[in-house]
Design goal:
The protein has 560 residues and is an all-alpha fold. It has 31 helices and no strands. This is Anaphase-promoting complex subunit 7.
């Protein structure tokens, strides 16, 4: 074995630390001995590529970029040379010399790792369209999407599908860019061998097309048919897609169940686990969220999902400072600068830290990347209201209805903003009534309506509405609000029962605790006063009692 053979053997053996040192030494030998042919020109080029590969695998991306650029310069010299590979070279060119396209792709990978996306795009665009492989076109398509160059991205994705009809990521990419499902299906089927039958693929494209066009009900039906009837039962990607559609539809309960099933099928599966973490945090399932975040971090720390999961855990955990949530969100953003969930998490954390102005910027950024995300509108509206920018909040809520559509969530959030305006409660009621009619199981409009009725002193109507809801739902807030109404209609014992139920469901509910203390205080004062009266009626000093103490006690009592 000659010196180059040893370099190549280290590369094939993936001994990258050894390869880094040896290839560097060999290159120096070549540079410092111009009159002696240590390696042929083609071997020097290939040794340079191996050197770059070793640096890339060891995470030294900037050095690898520099070496790959030097390798490309050598490749140009090699192409100009008459004898690119001499007759004495023991290995054939096709086996020994890395193509210029592959080196440029490696250079793109280095630049992407360093978040230099424009430079990475420029490198790949330097490859002629005829020489672009499928992986080059996929990479270009993703870079074009980041840059907002949708037409170029569509062209690149189509080239991938022509070469690889089963490139599911490219199919999803085309659908997300607005290409019709029928057109994508036709492109895929044309690339399949004649007579090939892929019923599952047609159904999968149909389901993904429904997701892309936000027809979530149809997407759920399609994926459930695949899960139940097409020998794909318990496929983690299909189950995950059903849960994803449920989430975007706004059915948190069903989405949570779906993600739990997906996680049980494959505990190491990462896709949409950030959404799963959000739902667990929303339901305050602290222990389950802690287990999930720790498990995801064992899978990898190079993906945003584990960091986002830890972020939501720190947001609801009393053991971790909320400032850590901002750190975890930032880590996710560094890994994926265009990750919407990272923006939402950071915005939520900053809002909880009373930094509404900073939080609003992150929610706005989330909306820029995902204009149909309800959570981004909700977060931004909350920021505006905390900053007393009601007019902007109302405009944002109106935009949510126009963009997402008129559904229970958007109607409710619009109504909730209206309730912050003086004398606008009457205008909010029709929106809430419509939301409750569209989805009787959705409780947010019930909560907002209850607040309006309480404010308007319509206690009987509010009590009746909440009792009706409690026949089918059992939530902390329903019991707490019913306790508020019962306290107002002089039903202290029933009010206390409701507050106790609310606190058993959520011990951290401040309003339930305060309501309970208020009722107990009023009730104790009343009992004590009655006891004093009875005691004094039987005493010998009846004539000395003028009732001033009792009047004082009652006047100091707050009935609210």
């Amino acid at each position: 074995m000659n010196l180059f053979d040893h370099v190549r053997f280290l590369h094939e053996s993936e001994l990258f630390h050894d390869l880094k040192q040896l290839s560097c030494i060999v290159i120096s030998l070549c540079d410092n001995n111009p009159n002696t042919e240590v390696l042929s020109l083609s071997q020097r080029y290939q040794c340079m590529v191996y050197y770059g590969n070793s640096l890339y695998h060891l995470g030294e991306f900037l050095r690898a970029e520099n070496i790959y650029k030097k390798a490309l310069l050598l490749k140009k010299a090699l192409n100009k040379s008459k004898g690119k590979i001499t007759a004495t070279t023991p290995v054939q060119p096709s086996q020994d010399v890395t193509s210029e396209v592959d080196v440029k792709y490696k250079l793109y990978q280095c630049l992407s790792q360093m978040k230099q996306f424009r430079e990475a795009m420029s490198i790949l665009e330097g490859i002629s369209s005829k020489q672009r492989t499928a992986k080059v076109n996929v990479a270009l398509a993703k870079l074009y999407v980041m840059a907002g160059m949708d037409r170029s991205a569509i062209t690149s994705y189509k080239e991938v599908i022509r070469e690889c009809p089963f490139s599911l990521e490219s199919i999803q990419g085309l659908l997300s860019l607005g290409v019709k499902g029928a057109d994508v299906a036709a492109l895929v089927m044309n690339g399949l061998p004649h007579g090939a039958s892929c019923d599952w693929l047609s159904s999968w494209i149909k389901g993904q097309a429904y997701l892309a066009t936000r027809e979530y009900g149809n997407a759920i039906i399609t994926f459930k048919q695949m899960d139940q009837k097409m020998c794909l039962k318990d496929n983690v990607y299909i189950v995950n897609s059903i849960a994803e559609a449920r989430f975007y539809e706004g059915n948190d309960t069903a989405a949570l169940t779906g993600f739990q099933r997906s996680h049980q099928l494959d505990p190491l599966f990462l896709k949409n686990m950030d959404l799963f973490s959000y739902l667990l945090a929303k339901e305050k399932k602290t222990m389950e969220l802690q287990r999930l975040s720790e498990q995801l971090m064992k899978v990898t720390d190079k993906a945003p999902e584990p960091w986002i999961s830890f972020g939501y855990y720190s947001l609801i955990s009393r053991k971790v400072a909320r400032t850590r949530t901002v750190y975890f969100a930032q880590k996710a953003s560094i890994i994926d600068p265009f990750n919407v969930e990272a923006y939402l998490l950071k915005g939520t954390a900053l809002f909880e830290l009373k930094k509404s102005q900073d939080a609003s910027l992150h929610f706005q950024e989330a909306l820029r990347h995902a204009p149909h995300r309800y959570e981004a509108y909700h977060g931004l509206i909350s920021c505006y209201l905390s900053l007393h920018r009601t007019r902007e909040a109302l405009a944002c809520a109106g935009k949510a209805i126009k963009t997402i559509g008129s559904n229970p969530r958007t109607l409710t959030i619009y109504a909730s903003v209206l309730t912050n305006e003086p004398n606008m409660s009457a205008k909010a009621k029709p929106y809430l009534e419509k939301a409750m009619k569209l989805d009787p199981s959705y409780l947010e409009p019930v909560y907002v309506m209850a607040e309006i009725l309480l404010r308007d002193h319509q206690y009987d109507k509010g009590t009746e509405m909440l009792r009706k809801q409690l026949h089918t739902h059992n939530t902390c807030r329903l019991h707490q609000q019913l306790g508020d109404f019962l306290a107002q209609i002089s039903e202290p014992l029933e009010a206390l029962d409701e507050y106790n139920i609310a606190l058993s469901l959520d011990p951290t509910n401040t309003r339930a605790r305060e309501g309970k203390e208020r009722v107990e205080k009023h009730n104790d004062v009343g009992l004590e006063s009655t006891y004093d009266l009875e005691d004094m009626e039987g005493s010998d000093n009846d004539g000395d009692f003028d009732g001033s103490d009792v009047e004082s006690n009652w006047s100091e009592t707050e009935f609210s």
